[in-house]
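Friendly challenge for the regulars: who can give me the structure tokens for this chain first? No prize, just bragging rights.
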Amino acid sequence: MKKAIIFDFGQTLADASNGFRAAEKEAQKKLFLCLGIASSDDFLEIYRQLRKAYHEKSDFSRKDMWIQIFAHYDIAPDLTLLEHLEDDYWNTVESQTALFPEAMDTLEKLSSKHRLAIITNTQGQKISGKHRLSRFPGLAGFFHEIIVAGELNVPAKPDPAPFQLCLQSLGILPPEAVYVGDDWGIDICGASSIGIQPIWLKHHSVRRTWPVGNIEIPVITSLDRLLDLDTIIPQV
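First reply, four minutes later:
Bragging rights claimed.
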């Protein structure tokens, strides 16, 4: 029997896609102007390559990524300016993050039958020192454990450590939990690697090109599907 449901946060409980798109456009425009280079096409290609590389290693420090862009062009960056740009970036993301419409009602109903937890990766937000889930004060009360991986010596997902730490806190074994997330490499593969049953949320309202997974995983397109968990994962 599944005793706990563990969630990712961004694009799982909350939609931040518009915020990320807006933050990326603002950051790219400002960085391009700071660099003073001629070709925007070359700049965008380098930017996207570095962003992909940082995402793949679960490093969400925009400042560190931007330093590498300056290094590519052999230009010394203004580190104070990059810190301000990073604050602006995460403030834009945070201001345009909203819970999925069905999230609160679904969590309330699930919490009567299961222990709930969150494992989310840090995002390097410096100005407040808080993850953006703190914008939703009613959210925390549903969860027995909230782990922001990548902080306080806890490695970021997909490292097994945050998953193991969460299981220990809940007092359960991997087969007794499911993990709900949107990111194939970070969430689905991370949970699966230590024996937690993953559920892949491809929310119907998110405009995104989803990768093709190489293992068979239950897929849902709305959080309220979790209310019928036994139909998603037989014999739970």
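The helical segments are 17-35, 40-56, 62-72, 79-95, 103-110, 160-170, 184-192, 229-232. The CA atoms of residues 1 and 235 lie 8 Å apart. Your move, everyone else.
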